[in-house]
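Project standup — Tuesday

K.O.: blocked on the structure for the chain from last sprint. Re-posting the sequence here as requested.
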Amino acid sequence: MTGPGRGPQGVYDQLNATPPQAPSPGSGMISGATAASAPVDPDQYSKLGSGQAKADFAAASANGGWEFDPAAMDKVIKALQDSLDNDYSRANVEATFLTGIDAMGTEVGSEGYVAKANASGAAYQEFLRSAVDYTTAYVDTLRQIRDAYQRQDQAALDAIRDVGKAVRMGSRSALLVLATAALLVSACSDSRNGNPTTPAPSSSAGQAGSLPRAGAPNIDQPLDTAAAEADPCSVVKNDQVQTFGGGAVDRSRVEDLSSGKVCTWVFANGLGTISAGMNTGERDGLSHLYALNAQGSGLTTFKPSEPIDGYPSVVFANGGERSYVCNLAVGVRNDLMYTIVATPGTSNPNRSDPCGMATKLGTFAIQHLKAAQ
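H.V.: unblocked you, prediction finished:
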């Protein structure tokens, strides 16, 4: 392979090329829109979303003839909550299951590509999580406005309206966060349409005889997971999830991701989601996470945890860490891990302990798998 952009020279050129620059001030990312201001600190996206909802409310209610329509408000809240529970949840789980690329070799080309790719993955996770923070805060504020109207609490409404007037002028660019995130979520979730985003293969690509590696623990009693891979929602029942989930399970669904089938349990009233499944797209099991930690890229969090009913586990992430999110991988064989993503909602009592929530689901899953052997 020769010519511009091909072969080793093409890889080198891509790794060392000047990255695309941000648009100049005032140019806008969307025709007719004002360019977004410099990115805010990740922790500020919730304040940004809440402020935008208050600003929108202040603008809508500035007209003296405006009347509150509870049905219309509920419709907006439901549409945004469905987006969080479905589109954003799916994108987050997909990205988590594809965490990190394990270098195929130690030459500069492989290591350079892996470092760039893993940094890109971490940036995407952070951007996606910030968009979720923004949207969640927006929805929570709409609920506060709706509840204040239903209580006829004029003082609360006036306070929200006054804050909204103060932030209205500076908040328009924040909508670009939500719009851009929605486009990325749609683009990265094409596996529903038969066009999944696939990860680069790991170095050992399922060489079971060479596992474990990189210091990962050996799985002495490997589990048969065929049934769980085919129907991940059969591993833990809805009523079991309700015992630790912090609220009623509204529904569960099987999602066919590029890394395998996953079950997502959605809690009622915006109390969040928890997803889990066998990560069949990564055939190195926990060794993959241990190798990423050893190579120094592909993970920004790596914490070996207490065994779950005798099976080793690791809390991990590659960007997008939040106190209310937990990614937990449980080794069920040397070449396979059961991955759990817990994201309790704002009012969920598990909000401050998502890993406790993930551990309980993992315990139910391992017990089910052991009983089925």
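K.O.: great, moving the ticket to review. The chain has a mean pLDDT of 79. The chain has two domains: 35-185, 213-371.
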